[in-house]
Automatic annotation (TrEMBL):
<keyword id="KW-0732">Signal</keyword>
<feature type="signal peptide">
    <location>
        <begin position="1"/>
        <end position="20"/>
    </location>
</feature>
<dbReference type="InterPro" id="IPR013431">
    <property type="entry name" value="Delta_60_rpt"/>
</dbReference>
<dbReference type="Pfam" id="PF17164">
    <property type="entry name" value="DUF5122"/>
</dbReference>
<protein>
    <recommendedName>
        <fullName>Delta-60 repeat protein</fullName>
    </recommendedName>
</protein>
């Protein structure tokens, strides 16, 4: 049964309630079951561009990306919103929150006192110079001038707030004048670089080091990073590295895998796009692009790896699309959700040009797999594929999706959609 339009009467943006919130844990929230395949009808719509990131601050969803306008759920009222906006989690009402950000926002993280951290390719916020990193208030969109971190060049692609710290990953080589290649830990209030934390990422022969994405375990003790790098210090770590971050430094663990050493299509300095811890921290799942060239490589796949053992690791399972990219992953316990521009799951013998192989199942643009076997679950809402899903956000009662297209669950949903748990 289709959900009722709870926001039909919301014809004007509303202010954000005056409540405080602390940053939540960064790993995905556990769900008791798989979400419904019918998205709610009250979410607003992004009318152009791409949604790259989602964050939850109290009961407010913050949406970041590269876009210029949004509309309410009924599509009767349009608002100018450049690269960022916010709406109510439970009613879809668009907030008055509208900071001026002059470039794409690729990442968001919940901040203290009803604020949000921004990461991206911007150079200024509300007219003030602050490259790549910023903190803004959700009450009025004002920039925290006390948070002074800025990258030297490039962008910030991944953020995670944890206690008094903010982790940031991207293409930068220095933050606030202190050399850090692709990954940094900052004081959450001041943005001052934690000088005891240095992952020492390096990429001999690569054009530049890039952390494409990272995740922090629920207990805050482990950080898994993926991207264009080949070493951490003197240790070989091809595109993926696991660190112990529970203490004062970034301590490389003995965990490693050679599964991503084989190259995919020429031109990919990294083909890993997103990584997430399971809610209990016992395993990770990596989503990848790369143009599959054989069933033995992990191009265009999702792969599970256990994290509680040291030494060389092989994937527990691999989900292969047969030549289409995966960009986003969320892990809730009963399901691993995957998004990209894939056409099929369970397709190790299919190819991009020749169609599905034996056993392949249709899962256009979004789908879910069994966390134990990696095989496709029945959940199949479908979406218009476009370039692909770029962001998932798991809340206690919903799975939110950010992308670049406007059809989700066989309904119109402009670049943002939300699947409820049954009964939510």
């Amino acid at each position: 049964m289709r959900r009722r339009l709870l926001a039909a009467a919301a014809v004007a943006a509303v202010a954000i309630p005056a409540v405080a919130s602390a940053p939540p844990a960064t790993a995905d929230t556990y769900h008791p079951t798989v979400v419904s395949a019918d998205p709610v009808d009250f979410t607003p719509h992004v009318l152009d561009g791409t949604v790259w990131s989602l964050a939850l601050v109290g009961d407010t969803v913050v949406v970041g990306g590269a876009f210029t306008k949004v509309s309410d759920a009924s599509r009767r009222v349009t608002f100018a919103r450049k690269n960022i906006f916010a709406f109510g989690l439970h009613d879809g009402q668009i907030r008055t929150f509208a900071p001026e950000v002059d470039g794409a926002i690729y990442s968001l993280a919940t901040g203290p006192d009803y604020s949000v951290y921004l990461g991206g390719a911007f150079k200024s916020v509300n007219g003030a110079a602050q490259r790549g990193l910023a903190r803004v208030s959700l009450h009025d969109g004002s920039r925290y001038s006390s948070f002074g971190a800025r990258v030297n060049w490039g962008d910030v692609r991944s953020l995670s707030s944890r206690g008094g710290s903010l982790y940031a990953g991207g293409t930068f080589s220095a933050v606030s004048g202190i050399r850090r290649s692709g990954l940094v830990r900052l004081n959450a209030l001041t943005g001052v670089v934690d000088q005891g934390f240095d992952a020492r990422l390096a990429g001999p022969g690569l054009k530049r080091v890039r952390v494409e994405h990272f995740d922090v375990s629920l207990d805050g003790r482990k950080l898994i990073a993926v991207g264009a790098f080949l070493k951490s210090g003197t240790a070989a770590r091809n595109q993926i590295a696991l660190f112990d971050v529970g203490g004062p430094g970034a301590n490389l663990t003995g965990w490693y895998t050679d599964a991503f050493v084989p190259t995919c299509m020429q031109g990919f300095d990294t083909y890993l796009r997103q990584v997430k811890f399971s809610p209990d921290g016992s395993y990770i799942v990596v989503a990848a692009t790369g143009r599959a060239s054989s069933a033995q490589k992990l191009c265009d796949s999702a792969a599970r790896f256990e994290t509680r053992a040291a030494g060389k690791q092989n994937p527990t399972w691999v989900q292969r699309t047969g030549g289409d990219s995966l960009y986003a992953v969320a892990i809730t316990g009963p399901a691993v959700y995957l998004g990209g521009h894939q056409r099929w799951f369970d397709n190790p013998y299919g190819t991009d040009g020749n169609g599905p192989g034996p056993g392949a199942v249709s899962r256009p643009g979004i789908g879910a797999v069994n966390p134990n076997t990696g095989k496709a679950l029945e959940w199949n809402p479908t979406r218009s594929r476009g370039v692909g899903v770029r962001a998932f956000l798991v809340t206690p009662h919903f799975l939110l999706v950010g992308s670049d297209t406007d059809e989700l669950g066989r309904e119109y949903h402009g670049r943002v959609g939300m699947f409820p748990l049954p009964g939510a």
